[in-house]
């Protein structure tokens, strides 16, 4: 499942363009999964599209449980990951659109929201304690748009965190960095020992994006990107954006990522291998890095792998507890479903203790409010507990920029980030280019 998660990040960018066309097609055709009514009474079927990977068995078990007591049955359609975007796009432009579907929240559903094709679940969350109190608030908020809730969390959380080699740090008398000063000192210390301070898969722009996401948050606070996500492109001109880009350039100039990072790939395992082999001391990556290392370098994962939060930045306006990354995946409901109430009833299953435990047993860290009670049974309870508390206590969880924005902005943004890291664009040119993304 780990590889599907990583590939899913880039697909989240590509699929927004596809669903924009699908949403317009559906509006013009007046189609959907069924017109009229949102009754829960009587019999019927709800079709639910899900991204097909190893986690599907968890969703299928939830479907089976729901169908035992509901007159309206859920039919789960598992779509292979490589086909998910095209399959959903085609279905949403036809009379056979799914009633419920898997998505990444944020910009990935904005075209559907703009076309009036999704059920606004805000009132359901406000009036139903199962939904209102069932999930971690930062995760629900991260998947929302303009203050309205369109998705129910349905898979594990994937925050970005700073991984480090415990053995290397101990050998050189260093502690994992808590402040930016700590981080720069570690960069200097490891360079002197001819160890690359940070592994970075520079051929994959989304790995570089993580640095800017955290630095902008720490320097300017979460509100800067929130303005951008809400359509205010002038917020790219906030001084915090330039400062974050300047800090990135300083890291590059200082050799924090080595001299060949632009030719290193995360997707083919290059960056994780550098880290596991002790050739790099740290790696800023999504929480799936643990499972990546457990699968490829199990001894390293068990004996040497450490993790911590992203450091604080002196004078920054961002809360030190803020998190960036992929909060989770979500279920959204087609506004034309004939069984809206039954659909919401099914989504409430995602907050159940049984579903939470099934996610934990599958190696995920659930986003439910009571998940902490089940983490002892996870493959690595210490890592699971750290990750869960990190998100639970976060004042704000910023959705990865390439998922929060629509494709017409996310794709050129990633291009500009790649140019900044490659040294073909200055911090000033970087911010000017982003301000032009209207």
From TrEMBL:
Q: Which residues form a coiled coil?
A: none
Where does the UniProt annotation place the signal sequence? Answer: 1-29
Gene3D superfamilies, sorted? Periplasmic binding protein-like II
Pfam families, per this entry? Answer: SBP_bac_1
Keywords from UniProt, A to Z, are:
Signal
In terms of PANTHER family, this protein maps to: ARABINOSE-BINDING PROTEIN-RELATED, BLR3389 PROTEIN
What's the protein name? Extracellular solute-binding protein
């Amino acid at each position: 499942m780990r590889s599907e998660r990583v590939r899913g990040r880039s697909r989240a960018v590509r699929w927004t363009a596809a669903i924009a066309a699908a949403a317009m097609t559906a509006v013009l055709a007046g189609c959907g999964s069924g017109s009229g009514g949102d009754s829960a009474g009587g019999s019927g079927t709800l079709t639910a599209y899900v991204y097909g990977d190893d986690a599907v068995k968890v969703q299928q078990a939830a479907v089976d449980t729901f169908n035992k007591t509901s007159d309206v049955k859920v039919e789960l359609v598992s779509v292979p990951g490589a086909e998910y975007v095209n399959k959903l796009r085609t279905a949403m432009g036809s009379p056979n659109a799914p009633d419920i579907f898997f998505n990444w929240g944020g910009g990935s559903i904005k075209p559907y929201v703009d076309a009036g094709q999704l059920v606004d679940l805000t009132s359901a969350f406000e009036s139903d304690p199962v939904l209102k109190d069932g999930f971690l608030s930062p995760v629900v908020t991260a998947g929302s748009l303009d203050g309205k809730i369109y998705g129910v969390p349905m898979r594990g959380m994937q925050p970005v965190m700073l991984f480090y080699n415990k053995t290397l740090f101990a050998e050189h008398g260093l502690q994992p960095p808590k402040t930016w000063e700590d981080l720069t000192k570690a960069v200097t210390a490891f360079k002197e020992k001819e160890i690359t301070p940070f592994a970075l898969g520079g051929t994959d722009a989304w790995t570089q994006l993580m640095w800017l996401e955290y630095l902008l948050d720490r320097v300017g606070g979460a509100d800067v990107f929130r303005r951008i996500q809400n359509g205010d492109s002038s917020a790219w001109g906030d001084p915090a954006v330039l400062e974050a880009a300047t800090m990135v350039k300083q890291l590059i100039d200082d050799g924090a990522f080595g001299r060949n990072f632009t030719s290193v790939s995360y997707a083919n395992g290059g960056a994780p291998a550098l880290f596991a082999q002790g050739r790099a001391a740290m790696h800023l990556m999504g929480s799936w890095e643990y499972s990546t290392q457990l699968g490829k370098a199990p001894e390293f994962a068990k004996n040497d792998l450490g993790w911590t939060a992203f450091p604080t930045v002196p004078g920054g306006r961002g809360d030190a507890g803020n998190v960036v990354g992929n909060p989770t995946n979500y279920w959204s409901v087609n506004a034309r479903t004939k069984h809206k109430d039954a659909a919401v009833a099914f989504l409430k299953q995602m907050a159940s203790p049984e579903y939470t435990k099934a996610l934990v047993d599958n190696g995920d860290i659930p986003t439910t409010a009571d998940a902490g009670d089940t983490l002892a049974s996870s493959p690595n309870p210490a890592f699971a507990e750290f990750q869960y508390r990190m998100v639970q206590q976060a004042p704000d969880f910023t959705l990865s920029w390439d998922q929060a924005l629509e494709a017409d902005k996310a794709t050129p943004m990633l291009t500009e980030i790649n140019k900044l890291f490659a040294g073909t664009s200055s911090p000033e040119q970087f911010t000017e280019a982003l301000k032009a993304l209207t």
